[in-house]
Each structure stands twice: as structure tokens, then as C-alpha cells.
């Protein structure tokens, strides 16, 4: 019975690691073991082209407006770059699109394959030259843009396809300044002039966008402001189970709550969101980073998520998510303003929650959100005292060991007693090998006499596995741990150990634990007990260093506790 339970436990543990390993492979761009990866297409953008369609004016009734593609390849365009201490943003005067956003405090990092790393270690391959560059969100290669404009039932109004003129002014945040502004003015379209003012603030990953609408015509007009995020979905691998991180549109409001939409579901018109609400925001989510249009002031808005019509010269499908706001009717000569905030930055959970209700939900914890969120909260509190994420993980394991000390001690005592009575049980099995029913009864009698719980040794692993898997998602999703160093050669806890030292130490500690534990009665199972740590150790070669550090620390503390209990009970 004990051997069967132990086998079941190892099977559960093995499958958990296989699923984690498969997710990590997909996270690093490798195909899934369970389904083929989607083909990748390269999107090309003609110079001066605006991506995305213009939403048609709404009548205020529920329902998403149709999309009209507006080719503008002949329109003039000027790229204006604005720099702050944390953002370098490029704005296109064609419609006032934000077409590029660099994050200089977040750099790309090389991610060579395991094979390349092994060849480099033995001197058979020289490392490829690599210069880290800032992470880029909005960019032309992915048709990724933030767009705004006007629509109206009365006729054409200034849109993101309308050429605008930039007003002279500073383009860089100077020392001692807290903000810098960029002002763009459109010509009159349909008797309406649109002025966009972008406000960039020191230390902020948000851009304030003020729309000033002036009715310069002779008839009343009821303008509608649309805010939308556009990007192509052809570079995203989808369709596989256990996806490590989500890429695509997300919508939040008091009716829908939080809803992510896969690109393939949009293709099939499976967009299940409440289109009318009095609050909420839209976002484009990717690993570690996100963009979002935020309007926190209450006011009716219509949400949309849709696939845009194909454009000449552009490969790949483009998708848009956004909101439409209906403004008060403007008499001739009247004007009004509408304010919005564009977020483009890292998914720092504590900062996201301050920007808008529910915005922290863009951080993807996968299927274990219910465990990962409190686990990150605890890690964040510990990091506030310790200041190093590696030692924070060590402290987390120590706290868990202290919290579960009594339960673990009971389990280890049971395992130690099983090791002590192993010779007696082996003798009994040999004596009663032809009488299986009597042998089982005798074994249960020995367990009762020695106060041994046959499944007691399984409890520590069962209790650790949910935390282990939740920590995996936290490491994958937490941008604060991205490129976070620990000590010496561990310069990034979110990627694998470059020299595989931690996995080898973890493998050695696991083998030592097998030696400490009672042997399995079946010789085949006993061999498997020695093979499993080696197989798992190899699998851990591709896991994040922070995850391996967690398991290694857990092994070391478990060995210390088991060793003390064995000595107390006189078990060698």
C-alpha cells in the first residue's frame, strides 16, 4: 500500500514538473510538446501608413460600431520623439499616433539555448555579441500603436488618419522639470478642429492626453472621442494548453469585470464583453509589460474589440480594442475637452493598482492566481526588508518551514520509524511472500505498534507542490524579478542558471534525501527512487534560477530537519 501511494505521489510530481517545463519552453519561444506552434508571420508597414480602422459613429444604443478602413499612405508624416527619465516616446503627426515607446530602465537580455550555453562552457562555441537595448512596446514591426480621434454622425471629423501640426516647444524633460508637453493641432475637418496635448511627467509610465474639440463650423455637432490600441497578432503563438503568459486585448469594467480575449477568438467573433458601461479601461497585454487607455472619471462609454480589415502592403492580421465616448453637443464656436491617460510600462503590481481599479489584473498568474497573488504579496513584504529577491525566496522557504514545522516533523518521524523497522518488514515479507493477505495484515500490525503513518512521508511534498507551482507563475509574471540578481553568477532569477550549478546542487540534495528516507520494499521502485532525482535535476536545468533556488533551499532545510529527527530516534 505504501509503495503504491509513493508511486502515485511521484507520478503527480512528475506530471507537474512536465507541465511546468512545457510552459517554460513555450515561454522561451520553443514549441509545445502537446500542440504545434502557430506559424509566425512578419508584418511590414509602408512608410507613413496608419494602421487600424476608424470606428464609425455610434447612435448611443448598445452594439459595436462597424469599422471603416481609411488608407492614408499619401498623407504627410513627421516623427517627434519626447524623452523623460523613464520613457522615450515617438509621436507621429499623422493623426497623433504614439508609434513607439522605449523603456530605458528595462533592457532586453540574451537568452541563448541550453545547447549554446553548454558549448560555450566547454569552449566549443564563442558567445554571440549582444548589446542590451531598451524594451520597446509600441513599434512599427508589430503594427502596435495607440490612437485617438473623433467620429460623428454628422460626417467626417479629425481622426488618427488626419495630418496634424506640432506646436514648437521642448521635446525632452530638462533637469529640475516635472513635466514636458507636446501639442498637436489638426486642420478643420467637417467644421471641427482637434487639438491633442500630450503631457509626460517625471518618473511616470503614463501619458496624459487631452483632446480639445473646437466647433469652428456653422452647425451644431455632437463629437465622439475614440481611444484605441492596435497591434498585430501574427507573432503570438497560441492554441496550446498551459500557456505561460497571455498576449492580447483585455477589457475591464463594472459589468464585464476583467476579460482577456485571444486573437483566435476574435477571429471567430467570440467577443463576450459588455459593450456599455459607466467605467472601465482597455489594454493590450504581453509578458511583463502592458499598455492601457484609462479614463477613471465616471461616464458612459462603449467598448469594442475586433479584427481590422486588411491593409495594402501589410502582412498579418491587426486587432483593435478601445472605447468610444459621446461628448455634449457643441454649438458653433463652442469647445469642450476630454481627458484620458495612456499607460505604457511594466506590470508593477503595486503601481498598477494605483492607476486604475483592477489594472493589476493584467499581470498574468495563469491558473494559480488564487495562490500566486498572496504569495507575491508575502514576497513583496519580505523584499521590503531584505532588498534582494534571491534572499527573499530563501526567507520565504524558511517561513514556510517554520509554519509547517510540526506537520513536517510528524511526517519525518514516520519516515524515520519506517527506516528503523525496514529490516523487520523485509524479513516478514520474505517469510510470508507466498501469503500476500497475511503479509499485508502483519505489515499493518507493525505500523500500528510502531505508530507509523504509511502516507505521512508524502505530506511535505503534497503541501509544497501548490506553492512550488504558484512560485513558478510568480517568477514568470513578476517584472520586479526580471533581471533581478541574487549572488555571484546568478544575475537574473527569472531565467535559468547559466552554469547549471543550482540544478546540480538540487540534484545532489535530492539524492541525499533518498538516502535518508526508508527504502522501498520493491527493488524496482527503489531504483526508481534513485533515478527520479537525476531526471528531475536535468529538467530543472531549464527552469528559472529563482525556482531552483526555492527547491534547493527547501531540500537543505528538509535534510537538516530529517537528520535531526533520525538522530533523536537513533536511526542511521
UniProtKB/TrEMBL annotation:
Membrane topology: Multi-pass membrane protein
Localization per record: Cell inner membrane; Cell membrane
Predominant cellular place of this UniProt entry's protein: membrane
Domain called Membrane insertase YidC/Oxa/ALB C-terminal: residue spans: 389-567
Domain Membrane insertase YidC N-terminal intervals: 80-378
CDD domains listed in its UniProt record: 5TM_YidC_Alb3, EcYidC-like_peri
Pfam family, one: YidC_periplas
Transmembrane regions listed in the UniProt entry: 7-24, 389-409, 452-475, 528-552
Keyword annotations of the record: Cell membrane, Chaperone, Membrane, Protein transport, Transmembrane, Transmembrane helix, Transport
Keyword Protein transport: yes
Role, per record: Required for the insertion and/or proper folding and/or complex formation of integral membrane proteins into the membrane. Involved in integration of membrane proteins that insert both dependently and independently of the Sec translocase complex, as well as at least some lipoproteins. Aids folding of multispanning membrane proteins.
NCBIfam families per the UniProt record, alphabetical: PRK01318.1-3, yidC_nterm, yidC_oxa1_cterm
Subunit structure: Interacts with the Sec translocase complex via SecD. Specifically interacts with transmembrane segments of nascent integral membrane proteins during membrane integration.
Family: Belongs to the OXA1/ALB3/YidC family. Type 1 subfamily.
Protein name: Membrane protein insertase YidC
UniProt organism field: Pelomonas aquatica
Lineage, broadest ranks: Bacteria, Pseudomonadati, Pseudomonadota, Betaproteobacteria, Burkholderiales
Gene symbol of the encoding locus: yidC
Amino acid at each position: 500500500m505504501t509503495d503504491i501511494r509513493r508511486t502515485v505521489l511521484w507520478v503527480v510530481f512528475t506530471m507537474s514538473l512536465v507541465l511546468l517545463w512545457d510552459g517554460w519552453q513555450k515561454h522561451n519561444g520553443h514549441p509545445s510538446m502537446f500542440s504545434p506552434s502557430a506559424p509566425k508571420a512578419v508584418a511590414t508597414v509602408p512608410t507613413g501608413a496608419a494602421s487600424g480602422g476608424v470606428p464609425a459613429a455610434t447612435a448611443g444604443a448598445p452594439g459595436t460600431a462597424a469599422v471603416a478602413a481609411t488608407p492614408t499612405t499619401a498623407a504627410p508624416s513627421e516623427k517627434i520623439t519626447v524623452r523623460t527619465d523613464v520613457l522615450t516616446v515617438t509621436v507621429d503627426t499623422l493623426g497623433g499616433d504614439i508609434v513607439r515607446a522605449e523603456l530605458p530602465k528595462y533592457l532586453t537580455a540574451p537568452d541563448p539555448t541550453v545547447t549554446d550555453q553548454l558549448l560555450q562552457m566547454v569552449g566549443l562555441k564563442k558567445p554571440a555579441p549582444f548589446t542590451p537595448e531598451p524594451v520597446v512596446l509600441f513599434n512599427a514591426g508589430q503594427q502596435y500603436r495607440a490612437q485617438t480621434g473623433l467620429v460623428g454622425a454628422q460626417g467626417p471629423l479629425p481622426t488618427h488618419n488626419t495630418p496634424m501640426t506640432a506646436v514648437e516647444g521642448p521635446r525632452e524633460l530638462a533637469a529640475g522639470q516635472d513635466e514636458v508637453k507636446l501639442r498637436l493641432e489638426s486642420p478643420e475637418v467637417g467644421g471641427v478642429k482637434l487639438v491633442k496635448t500630450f503631457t509626460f511627467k517625471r518618473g511616470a509610465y503614463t501619458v496624459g492626453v487631452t483632446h480639445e474639440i473646437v466647433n469652428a463650423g456653422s452647425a451644431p455637432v455632437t463629437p465622439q472621442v475614440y481611444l484605441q490600441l492596435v497591434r498585430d497578432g501574427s507573432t503570438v503563438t497560441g492554441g496550446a494548453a498551459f500557456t505561460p503568459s497571455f498576449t492580447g486585448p483585455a477589457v475591464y469594467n463594472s459589468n464585464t469585470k476583467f476579460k482577456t480575449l485571444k486573437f483566435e477568438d476574435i477571429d471567430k467573433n467570440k467577443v463576450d464583453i459588455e459593450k456599455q458601461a459607466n467605467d472601465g479601461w482597455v489594454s493590450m497585454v504581453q509578458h511583463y509589460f502592458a499598455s492601457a487607455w484609462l479614463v477613471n472619471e465616471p461616464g458612459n462609454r462603449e467598448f469594442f474589440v475586433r479584427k481590422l480589415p486588411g491593409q495594402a502592403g501589410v502582412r498579418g492580421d491587426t486587432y483593435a480594442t478601445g472605447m468610444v465616448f459621446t461628448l455634449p453637443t457643441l454649438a458653433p464656436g463652442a469647445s469642450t475637452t476630454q481627458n484620458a491617460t495612456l499607460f505604457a510600462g511594466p506590470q508593477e503590481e503595486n503601481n498598477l493598482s494605483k492607476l486604475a481599479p483592477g489594472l493589476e489584473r493584467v499581470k498574468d498568474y495563469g491558473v494559480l492566481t488564487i495562490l500566486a497573488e498572496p504569495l507575491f504579496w508575502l514576497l513583496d513584504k519580505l523584499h521590503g526588508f531584505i532588498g534582494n529577491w534571491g534572499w527573499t525566496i530563501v526567507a520565504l522557504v524558511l517561513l514556510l518551514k517554520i509554519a509547517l514545522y510540526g506537520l513536517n516533523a510528524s511526517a519525518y518521524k514516520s519516515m524515520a520509524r519506517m527506516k528503523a523497522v525496514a529490516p523487520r518488514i523485509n524479513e516478514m515479507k520474505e517469510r510470508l511472500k507466498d501469503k500476500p493477505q497475511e503479509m499485508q495484515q502483519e505489515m499493518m500490525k507493525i505500523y500500528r505498534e510502531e505508530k507509523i503513518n504509511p502516507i505521512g512521508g508524502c505530506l511535505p511534498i503534497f503541501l509544497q507542490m501548490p506553492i512550488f507551482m504558484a512560485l513558478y507563475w510568480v517568477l514568470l509574471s513578476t517584472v520586479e524579478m526580471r533581471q533581478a540578481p541574487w549572488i555571484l553568477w546568478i544575475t537574473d532569477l527569472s531565467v535559468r542558471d547559466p552554469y547549471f550549478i543550482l540544478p546540480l546542487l538540487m540534484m545532489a540534495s535530492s539524492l541525499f534525501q533518498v538516502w535518508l528516507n526508508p527504502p522501498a520494499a520493491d527493488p524496482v521502485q527503489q531504483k526508481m527512487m534513485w533515478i527520479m532525482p537525476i531526471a528531475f535535476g536535468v529538467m530543472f536545468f531549464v527552469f528559472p534560477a529563482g525556482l531552483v533556488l526555492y527547491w534547493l533551499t527547501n531540500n537543505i532545510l528538509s535534510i537538516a530537519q530529517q537528520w535531526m529527527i533520525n538522530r533523536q530516534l537513533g536511526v542511521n
